[in-house]
Amino acid sequence: MPKEKRMKMNPEEPIQRHFNSAVCRPFDTPSTWYEAVYREAGNESNKVPWARQTNQPLLLPWLELRQELAAENRRTLVVGCGLGDDAETLAHRLPHVTAFDISPRAIAWCRQRFPASRVAYQVADLLDLPEDFRQAFDLVYEALTIQSLPPNLHAGAIAAIADCVAPGGILLLMCYGRDPEEPTDGPPWHLARSELDLFLQHGLQEVCFQEHMIAGVRRFLVEYRKA
Ligand SMILES: C[S@@+](CC[C@H](N)C(=O)[O-])C[C@H]1O[C@@H](n2cnc3c(N)ncnc32)[C@H](O)[C@@H]1O
C-alpha cells in the first residue's frame, strides 16, 4: 500500500506530542499519554484524534447478522472504549455490556455523554485486568486498542483480550491492517494478519477474516471463537 494511503498522525497533533513525551519519561507507562489527550481536549471531542461521535462503520453490519447474541444473560466486554459510541451501540442490542478504558477522563466523559446508559463503564488497564474478567464474556469487542500500544506490548494485549473470552464465546476485532513486510511507525501501529495469529495460541479459532478499505485506510475485521 502506498505510504500516503495510510492514516498517519500529524506530528503537530496532540496525540503525537503526548506520545513523544510519555515514552521519554521512564516512570510512565506508554498508555499514560491517552489520559493527557482526553484531558487536554476538555469537552471537545473533535480534539480527540480518533473520536468520531459514531460507531465503527463495520460494527452495525456485523451485528445485523448476529441476532442470536441478544439472548438473555450473555455478557459483552468492550476493550478500550474511548468515548463510548460502540459500547452504546452494543448496549442497544445486547444485555449486560461492560466497557473499560485506561483513561479515567474518557470513562467520566462516557458517563457524561450517556447519563441514562445501560453500559457498566469502568477504568481498567488492559495489561492488568481485574481477575473477574477472566473467561467471563460471551462477546469481547476490540477496536483499535492493540494498535494504539507500542509493538512490544502487542503480545501481552492479545493474551489479555483472549483471556476475557468465555468458553464458547466470540471475539470481534477491528484494526488498521498492513502487510507483514510493510513497516509501521505509530501511533497507530497497523497490525499484520500474521501478528493477529497470536490469538490462535490462546485458544481462539478464526472463523471469519475480512479486509475493507474505508476512507483510504485498510482495515481488518476478524471474528474468533473459543472452543
Ligand atoms: C485509538 S483509541 C480507540 C477508541 C475506541 N475503541 C474507538 O474505536 O474509537 C484507543 C483507546 O484505547 C485506550 N487504551 C490505551 N491503552 C489502554 C490500556 N492499556 N488499557 C485500556 N485502554 C487503553 C485509550 O485510552 C483509547 O481510548
Shape: globular
Question: Count of helices?
Answer: 7
What's the Cα radius of gyration? 17 Å
Based on secondary structure, the structural category is: alpha/beta
Q: How much of the residues is beta strand, in percent?
A: 25-35%
Helix content: 25-40%
Brief sketch in words of this structure:
By secondary structure, this protein is of the alpha/beta class. Helix 1 packs antiparallel against helix 2.
Please describe the structure with a list of short key phrases separated by commas or semicolons.
227 residues, alpha/beta, Rossmann fold, eight-stranded mixed sheet, 26% helix, binds S-adenosylmethionine, transferase, methyltransferase activity, Class I SAM-dependent methyltransferase, SAM-dependent_MTases_sf
Topology:
Elements: H1 14-24, H2 32-40, H3 59-64, E1 76-79, H4 85-93, E2 97-101, H5 104-113, E3 120-123, E4 137-143, H6 154-164, E5 165-178, E6 191-192, H7 193-196, E7 204-214, E8 217-226
Parallel strand pairs: 1-2, 1-4, 2-3, 4-5, 5-6
Antiparallel strand pairs: 5-8, 7-8
Helix pairs in contact: 1-2
Bound molecules: S-adenosylmethionine.
Outline the structure in words.
InterPro entries: Methyltransf_25, SAM-dependent_MTases_sf. This is Class I SAM-dependent methyltransferase. GO terms for molecular function: methyltransferase activity. Keywords: Methyltransferase, S-adenosyl-L-methionine, Transferase. With about 230 residues, the protein is α/β, with parallel strands linked by helices. The radius of gyration is 17 Å and the shape is globular. Strands 1, 2, 3, 4, 5, 6, 7 and 8 form an 8-stranded mixed β-sheet that branches. The chain has one domain: Vaccinia Virus protein VP39 (Rossmann fold), CATH 3.40.50.150. It has 7 helices and 8 strands, in the order αααβαβαββαββαββ. α1 runs antiparallel to α2. Helix content is about 25%, strand content about 25%. α4 links the parallel β1 and β2. The site of S-adenosylmethionine (SAM) has 20 residues, from loops.
